[in-house]
Amino acid sequence: MEYVELSERNTLRVAAVARYYLEVRDAEELSDALAWAERQELRTLILGGGSNLVFDGDFDGLVVRVAMRGRRWEQASDQEATLVLGAGENWHEAVLYAAGAGYRGIENLALIPGTAGAAPVQNIGAYGVELCDTLVSVTALDRQSGNLVTLQREACEFAYRDSLFKRSPGRYVITEIRLRLSRSKPLQLGYRDLEEYLAETLASELTVMDVATAVMAIRRRKLPDPEMIPNAGSFFKNPVVPSADYQNLLVRYPDIVGYAQSSTVKLAAAWLIDQCGWKGFRNQSVGVHNRQALVLINHSGGTGRDILELAAKIRASVQDKFGVELEMEPGVVS
């Protein structure tokens, strides 16, 4: 298709037009589409659920939406199984599918928007769990060689909200992922919000679906539904600073929120933004959510430029006040 409007294909509902647009349902269609774009000397953009990007204008190239579906179990036993997901599978629905089968490992990642194929790129995480905790391997089209390759977890180079796929944009197009899940693995309940929500229930009595349901309730209480209020989820990473820098900040700001790691401290970006007065801010088109300062919203038809200018102002104010640099989570497409 030509000249396709993308506002309904990104969760910020930012208006942008793709010169060409195609949905692919298997690896052969994907390979053919990319080969055609190369012959036409067109830029390409691989699109999943559109939940982690900002369009800063139209895209004069080919947008390929990965729509490969499919869920199946491999190497299943009474206690463990590998869940194989097509890249186009809705992530949240896959979490509920696994929880419904009694398998643990990804229930803390319920209600995260996007597709299964996009999950490894960002190494999605929430409530004390990251995707890399359960990921076994990724199947992807390597655009350098033109071949389908299988990358084991170690080869994916996962880090906090980071991966090989994010650091090598455009090279790999994920077609399938494999997750190793368990029916006996301890539930991850140590995250404060989750611990408080489930405080009146004995851990031994909780099911994996109980935890998924609790995560959904907490997220709905704190985060806006993109279907109701256009947003891209958490817009900034939690910055990680040396322990010495944290101690200096603690002297000046005794209430600062941080989570100690080995030799560093992960600061709560939402707290930093809130302290700079941005929580609940709105201008004519965009703003900051009034319950979660990490979430930028597009409440009245704002453009990608509107969102990015607001983000730049927030970053500058946090840098000026705390000397801490915020990094955006979404990618920018222009």
Describe this structure in words.
The chain is an alpha+beta fold. It folds into 3 domains: 2-66, Uridine Diphospho-n-acetylenolpyruvylglucosamine Reductase, domain 2 (2-Layer Sandwich); 71-222, Uridine Diphospho-n-acetylenolpyruvylglucosamine Reductase, domain 3; 231-333, Alpha-Beta Complex (Uridine Diphospho-n-acetylenolpyruvylglucosamine Reductase, domain 1), CATH 3.90.78.10. The chain is built from 9 helices and 19 strands. The strands form 6 sheets. It has a 5-stranded antiparallel β-sheet with strand order 6-7-12-10-11. Strands 1-2-5-3 form a 4-stranded mixed β-sheet, covered by helices on one side. It has a 3-stranded antiparallel β-sheet with strand order 13-18-17, covered by helices on one side. Strand 17 and strand 18 form a beta hairpin. The longest helix has 19 residues, at 304-322. It is globular and about 60 Å long. The model has no long low-confidence stretch (mean pLDDT 96).
